[in-house]
């Protein structure tokens, strides 16, 4: 779970704001990794829901339409696949820092619905070699380095914390 | 001994090369290989890049074309062999007799390795294939004890390669129709075991139920480590008692046998897991490389580093499998 | 097009039957069953081989005297020294044709005509050609092959005799580990032949009580009984030469007669299904593999 202060900070985020941030982030990632969804093939048209269990939010991604929307947990119906787990684990999986099968064996993440889509997504995202700290920090300007440093520190520290918790 | 590492994606391939593989094995993105999973495997272009990346690091590329040719569609498998040869693969890993014959005739200079899927478990079987198709190496099925591996390696006129870590087939490889009985998709024909398209997880009260096709494979109470929904590691009922009838959810870890395998003259050690993520490849290869180096340099055995290998395993547990006679 | 009449082959008994049951079964087959060929021998576990050693000659003689063609089968999984010897001994005898369970017999066979059992992976004509070039004259195709593959293979090699697994619990897997012994708390080395307690296999159900598989020593078979009684016309048109009936604890003589009657056109498929049900009342029938479906499905045409 995220440390309580961070949860507290993120939880009251209004849905439209969360949605806009998510859409902008996705656009940014796709700009930097244009082949991101290439490996999805026939699965690109599926609706995939990510539910960070430590946030009061979930996100529905449609790869083909390159769109994402935010909702309260359980608020997105008609999904093909829903992947749930602590936020830092979901991000760690997307970056290939964690092994999806191992997290699944350890019951840290759960997958509901179509497993094929989940598997295709995992393989596609992994091969894209995402790096959220680098990808989401400003590309240039004075804020680039400090933002990167904070994001990198957050991901490393939070992931270590998460792993320590379930070992 | 060569360390043979899995790669399901180009990124995992580069990771494997970077952390100490001597050779990386991979497959094309279709049913010609036994890990035909969605989003996994290599296009022709990706393989070409992988081969050249490997070559600059003095690492070999092995291409697994180890399912059985579908009657009437043999061209798909044959072109996979042709392309592997043209793209500079160091060897192809084959199981089908007809495809072995094709490769031997059309590409006599391309090294042919016998896939574990060929299920060649004894000297005479392997010798037959050495003689018929000039195979240079046989990957041994996970049904042999350590002493059988040693005896066989002494007697065959080709190299042997064995699995040391990763998913464990309980049944003899290449001769298992359990998955196709439940789903209609077969490891031998479609290159999938327990295909994701037929796997469902659902919550039933406090239990997570795994289903394959129309069959319940397991029920995991809350907090219990899970495994793949493979039939050979499922929980079933026999004579009123439920349990893991074939094998628990575990992975193979034969690293304590590295010294014995070296003494036996085994040429190569294989890590299972083309379907696994980059992090698996990086962590597992790094750890096994470290232990192998200790054995190769005749240093005291490297003590296993934390829990890396166990935590990467199905059910978070490992077994030495058939290498120990009592497993049988 | 001229079609050969479909032959019937009785496959080897896959289960551990005691000596008397085994002998009496074959004597009755010799006297009453409508099969052309009978395959005799232990294919599953080398530890069982001594069980029938004393009566094998009598069985073979009785079958031959009744006009049946007799083949001897070799083991499907060969790892131990005594198993390798057993294969070599079978390959070197000249009295009867050998049906190989895997490919270790080739050197000892030295090109002699032989048959290939259903656990050898023949998925295409190219593979059948490799085996044919080394003396194979008959091949029983793997049970999971779909009809269109069977047709492709048969039509590419008209000179080879092809058999299709047509009745019985389907052999699905074989292991070095004995799940049957393990279930009874024993290891394979000290198994006390517990598989002999379950002459038709030990049922394996899902946690939700659904029949799924059955244990036969180191082998796993299906809970359903594969039956191609409704597909005989298509199999003959595909170019298949013979149908293999795999012995179960049921009236196998009746089963052979039902298949023969359908082949001869004296019984229609609908009646045949109900008579098969009477011959093997415990059975749930399936034929999914033939129709590119999950193996446990039953497709009625």
UniProtKB/TrEMBL annotation, chain A:
InterPro entries: SCP2_sterol-bd_dom (IPR003033), SCP2_sterol-bd_dom_sf (IPR036527). Residues 38-125 form the SCP2 domain. It comes from Devosia nanyangense. This is SCP2 sterol-binding domain-containing protein. It comes from the Bacteria.
UniProtKB/TrEMBL annotation, chain B:
It comes from the Bacteria. The lineage of its organism: Bacteria, Pseudomonadati, Pseudomonadota, Alphaproteobacteria, Hyphomicrobiales. Required for O(2)-independent ubiquinone (coenzyme Q) biosynthesis. Together with UbiV, is essential for the C6-hydroxylation reaction in the oxygen-independent ubiquinone biosynthesis pathway. It comes from Devosia nanyangense. GO terms for biological process: ubiquinone biosynthetic process. This is Ubiquinone biosynthesis protein UbiU. Pathway: Cofactor biosynthesis; ubiquinone biosynthesis. Keywords: 4Fe-4S, Iron, Iron-sulfur, Metal-binding, Ubiquinone biosynthesis. Signal peptide: none annotated. HAMAP family: UbiU (MF_02232). GO terms for molecular function: 4 iron, 4 sulfur cluster binding; metal ion binding. Belongs to the peptidase U32 family. UbiU subfamily. [4Fe-4S] cluster binds at residues 169, 176, 193, 232. Its cofactor is [4Fe-4S] cluster. Residues 305-328 are annotated as: Disordered. Forms a heterodimer with UbiV.
From TrEMBL, chain C:
The keyword Iron applies. Its cofactor is [4Fe-4S] cluster. HAMAP family: UbiV. Coiled coil: none annotated. GO terms for molecular function: 4 iron, 4 sulfur cluster binding; metal ion binding. GO terms for biological process: ubiquinone biosynthetic process. Keywords: 4Fe-4S, Iron, Iron-sulfur, Metal-binding, Ubiquinone biosynthesis. Pfam families: Peptidase_U32. Required for O(2)-independent ubiquinone (coenzyme Q) biosynthesis. Together with UbiU, is essential for the C6-hydroxylation reaction in the oxygen-independent ubiquinone biosynthesis pathway. It comes from Devosia nanyangense. Belongs to the peptidase U32 family. UbiV subfamily. This is Ubiquinone biosynthesis protein UbiV. It comes from the Bacteria. The gene is ubiV. Forms a heterodimer with UbiU. [4Fe-4S] cluster binds at residues 45, 178, 191, 195. Signal peptide: none annotated. Pathway: Cofactor biosynthesis; ubiquinone biosynthesis.
């Amino acid at each position: 779970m995220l440390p309580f202060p961070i949860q507290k900070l993120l939880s009251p985020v209004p849905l439209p704001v969360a949605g806009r941030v998510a859409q902008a982030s996705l656009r940014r990632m796709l700009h930097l990794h244009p082949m991101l969804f290439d490996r999805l093939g026939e699965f690109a048209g599926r609706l995939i829901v990510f539910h960070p269990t430590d946030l009061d939010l979930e996100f529905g991604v449609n790869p083909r339409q390159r769109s994402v929307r935010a909702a309260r947990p359980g608020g997105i119906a008609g999904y093909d696949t829903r992947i749930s787990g602590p936020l830092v684990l979901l991000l760690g999986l997307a970056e290939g820092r964690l092994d999806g099968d191992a997290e699944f064996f350890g019951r840290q993440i759960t997958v509901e619905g179509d497993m094929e889509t989940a598997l295709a997504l995992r393989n596609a995202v992994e091969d894209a070699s995402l790096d959220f700290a680098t990808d989401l920090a400003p590309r240039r300007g004075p804020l680039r380095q400090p933002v990167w440093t904070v994001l990198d520190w957050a991901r490393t520290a939070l992931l270590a914390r998460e792993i320590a918790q379930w070992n | 001994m060569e360390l043979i590492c899995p790669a399901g994606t180009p990124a995992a391939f580069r990771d494997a090369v970077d952390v100490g593989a001597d050779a990386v094995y991979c497959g094309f993105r279709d049913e010609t290989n036994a890990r035909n999973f969605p989003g996994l495997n290599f296009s022709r272009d990706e393989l070409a890049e992988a081969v050249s990346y490997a070559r600059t690091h003095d690492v070999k590329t092995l291409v697994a074309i180890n399912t059985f040719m579908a009657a009437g569609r043999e061209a798909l498998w044959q072109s996979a062999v042709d392309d592997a040869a043209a793209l500079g693969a160091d060897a192809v890993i084959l199981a089908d007799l007809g495809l072995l014959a094709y490769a031997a005739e059309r590409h006599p200079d391309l090294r042919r390795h016998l896939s574990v899927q060929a299920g060649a478990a004894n000297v005479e079987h392997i010798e037959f294939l050495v003689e018929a198709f000039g195979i240079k190496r046989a990957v041994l099925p996970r049904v042999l004890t350590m002493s059988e591996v040693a005896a066989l390696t002494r007697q065959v006129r080709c190299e042997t390669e064995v699995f040391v870590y990763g998913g464990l087939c309980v049944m003899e490889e290449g001769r298992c129709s359990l998955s196709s009985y439940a789903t209609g998709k077969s490891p031998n024909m479609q290159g999938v075991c327990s295909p994701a398209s037929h796997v469902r997880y659902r919550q039933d009260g406090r239990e997570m139920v795994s289903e394959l096709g129309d069959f319940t494979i397991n029920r995991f109470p809350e907090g219990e480590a899970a495994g793949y929904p493979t039939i050979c590691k499922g929980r079933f009922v026999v004579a009123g008692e439920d349990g893991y009838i074939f094998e628990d959810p575990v992975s193979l870890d034969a690293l304590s046998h590295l010294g014995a395998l070296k003494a036996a003259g085994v040429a190569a050690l294989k890590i299972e897991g083309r379907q696994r993520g980059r992090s698996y490849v990086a962590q597992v290869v790094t750890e096994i490389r470290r232990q192998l180096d200790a054995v190769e340099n005749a240093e005291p055995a490297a003590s296993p580093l934390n829990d890396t290998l166990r935590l990467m395993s199905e059910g978070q547990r490992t077994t030495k499998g058939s290498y120990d006679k009592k497993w049988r | 097009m001229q079609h050969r009449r479909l032959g019937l082959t009785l496959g080897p008994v896959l289960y551990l039957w005691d000596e008397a049951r085994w002998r009496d079964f074959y004597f009755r087959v010799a006297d009453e069953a409508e099969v052309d060929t009978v395959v005799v021998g232990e294919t599953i576990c080398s530890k069982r081989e001594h069980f029938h050693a004393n009566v094998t000659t009598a069985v073979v003689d009785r079958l031959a005297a009744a006009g049946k063609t007799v083949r001897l089968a070799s083991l499907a999984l060969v790892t131990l020294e005594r198993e390798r010897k057993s294969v070599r001994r079978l390959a070197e005898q000249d009295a009867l044709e050998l049906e190989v369970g895997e490919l270790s017999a080739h050197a000892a066979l030295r090109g002699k005509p032989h048959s290939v059992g259903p656990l050898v992976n023949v998925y295409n004509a190219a593979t059948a050609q490799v085996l044919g070039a080394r003396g194979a004259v008959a091949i029983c195709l793997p049970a999971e092959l779909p009809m269109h593959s069977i047709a492709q293979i048969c039509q590419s090699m008209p000179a080879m005799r092809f058999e299709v697994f047509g009745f019985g619990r389907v052999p699905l897997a074989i292991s070095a580990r004995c799940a049957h012994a393990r279930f009874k708390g024993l290891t394979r080395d000290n198994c006390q032949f517990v598989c002999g307690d379950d002459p038709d296999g030990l049922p394996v159900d899902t946690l939700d009580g659904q029949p799924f598989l059955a244990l036969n020593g180191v082998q796993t078979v299906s809970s359903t009984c594969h039956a191609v009684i409704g597909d005989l016309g298509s199999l003959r048109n595909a170019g298949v030469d013979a149908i293999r009936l795999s012995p179960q604890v049921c009236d196998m003589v009746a089963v052979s007669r039902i298949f023969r009657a359908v082949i001869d056109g004296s019984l229609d498929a609908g009646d045949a299904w109900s008579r098969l049900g009477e011959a093997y009342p415990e059975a749930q029938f399936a034929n999914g593999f033939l129709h590119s479906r999950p193996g446990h499905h039953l497709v009625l045409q």
